[in-house]
Amino acid sequence: MEVSDAQREVRTVFVGGFWGQLVSAVLWLVSAALSTWVSPRAGITQIVLGGFLIFPLTQLLLRLSGGRSRVSRENPLHWLGMQVAFTLPLSMLLLVPVAEFHLNLFYPALMVLLGAHYLPFIFSTACACSARYARFWWAAALSSRTICRDRSAWAAGWVG
Fold first, then answer.
1. How far apart are CA 18 and CA 24, in angstroms?
2. How many CA atoms, within 13 angstroms, populate the side-chain half-sphere of residue 45?
3. List of the chain residues with pLDDT < 70
4. What CA–CA distance (Å, rounded) separates 49 from 79?
5. Residue (of 24, 142, 19, 122) closest to 80 by Cα position
6. Cα 42 from chain centroid?
7. What does residue 83 show for φ and ψ, rounded to 5 degrees?
8. How far apart are CA 8 and CA 38, in angstroms?
9. Structural domain that includes position 134
10. CA max distance for the chain
11. What is the C-alpha separation between 139 and 18, in angstroms, rounded?
12. Residue 27 contacts residue 49 (beta carbons within 8 Å)
């Protein structure tokens, strides 16, 4: 399978990332709401635990929408997607000392990790949208830290 065919299949099967972005957006909205009206720790816990559900929920929505939920086994990018998916939970361990040092840095630090998480998708999808997602998360991290300063951690959650 040619690389361009493999990339096209990834874009087609995952609908250009639509369902995954929708699930992520809902998780960020719930996290920001919990941080605002319950506690920052509740919002942080929700975004961390809910983040583990992004891929399974995306798979469910792909199936419910009538499309395929996986790329073919012949697609060489099949395993790259799985490897990329597992790097974010492992790198989130870096957020523990950040949150312990200063809770208000949690959301901006998570946004930086998410931006880095999208970099391999630029190759696997050959889609400019992945580059835009990476730039968005990095800009959001910088702007939320600049705008929110030392206010509550929840404020940065709304930016995400």
1. 10
2. 6
3. 122-160
4. 24
5. 122
6. 19
7. -65, -40
8. 43
9. 3-157
10. 51
11. 21
12. no
Over residues 110-133, the pLDDT tens digits come to 888 887 777 777 665 656 666 666
Domain tally, the chain: 1
Q: Can you spell out the DSSP letters for the chain?
A: --HHHHHHHHHHHTGGGHHHHHHHHHHHHHHHHHHHHT-HHHHHHHHHHHHTTHHHHHHHHHHHTTS-SS--TT-TTHHHHHHHHHHHHHHGGGHHHHHHH-GGGHHHHHHHHHHHHHHHHHHHH--HHHHHHHHHHHHHHHHHHHHHTTS-THHHHHH-
* Cα(42)–Cα(10) distance, integer angstroms: 34
Task: Say which amino acid occupies 107.
Answer: Y
